[in-house]
Amino acid sequence: MKKYVFLVNTFSLKERTNEIIEGIEEASKKLKFKYIIETNNDKRSTEDILDSYKNKKETIIVVGGDGIINRALNKLIDTKNTLGFIPCGTGNDFNRYCRENFIKGSNPCDVLKINDKYFINIGCFGIDADIANNADFKSKLIPRKQRYNASIIKHFAKYILKKFTVLVDNEKYEKEFCTIIVGNAKYYGKGYTINPKGKVDDGKFELFLIDRMSRLKFALLINRVKAGKHESNKHVKKIITNKAIIKCDQEVTANLDGEELTSKTFEIELLPKKINIFYDRDLIGLIKNYKKR
């Protein structure tokens, strides 16, 4: 009989925690597998729990948003464990890709390494990264689907561009970029198709260098990014590679699948098929659609 270890992120689920745990228990009975439920708390962190499994061979399914997937990836890399997830966050961008491309079960997946950190979906620098923690722009006057756009435009008005140096494939690009995107999968920002041709098992990643532009042009570009139609824009340069270096003369904070990394130099390398990702639409559906009696 199969056995899964569920790591429930109580800090992000908050009042939903008990209902999600009941959903896991019901799904386990229906699908007939053994299970262990672990919950993080003030005394036992996510990292502490994952460390306890580093010498084991388990399928560890994290329950929460993209951030906990990233934290689990960084702990489970180079172990014999398989990483799975139940998407219960606000963005769930990696799940969008998996739902379209993954088979039921284990899927070998490329991983990107930046300095001493790993990520699996999208990394960004510049304005996107700097406003990542302010993306939940709240205004009843703005439709929910446009609030991410509104957040970017609001911050763009006051944003001071930074000069980056990008070294890739024996080429050097040095200028003030609005944003730089490092893409393994396709989506970020709650469904924006930033990397339309992204594949997590092709041994390469896409690098997007987005030039300085006016606020109006940037606003128009955002709408094209939503639909994945920005690659032909003259302000966007796309490079396909497996290694790159990004430098800035001041410390900048990159955003890697919802987690932050601060440095002046970022050495990026793709590690082919470095981890197996467990994916099961039926299991996800049973847990997310469970309603507490």
In CATH terms, what is the fold-level topology of the largest domain?
Answer: Tumour Suppressor Smad4
Structural class determined from secondary elements: alpha+beta
> How large a portion of the residues is in β-strands, by DSSP E?
35-45%
What's the end-to-end separation, in Å? Answer: 28 Å
How many domains, as an integer? 2
Tally of helical runs: 9
The secondary-structure element order is EHHEHEHEHEEEHHEEEEEHEEEH
Task: Tell me the quaternary state.
Answer: single chain
Outline type: globular
Description of the structure:
- The protein is an alpha+beta fold and 293 residues long.
- It is built from 9 helices and 15 strands.
- The strands form 2 sheets. Strands 1, 2, 3, 4, 5, 6, 7, 8, 9, 12, 13, 14 and 15 form a 13-stranded mixed β-sheet that branches.
- Helix 2 packs across helix 9 and helix 7 packs antiparallel against helix 8.
- The radius of gyration is 19 Å and the shape is globular.
- The two termini are 28 Å apart.
- 39% of the residues are buried.
What are the defining features of this structure?
9 helices; 13-stranded mixed β-sheet; about 290 residues; globular; single chain; 2 domains; Rossmann fold
In short:
This protein has 293 residues and is an alpha+beta fold.
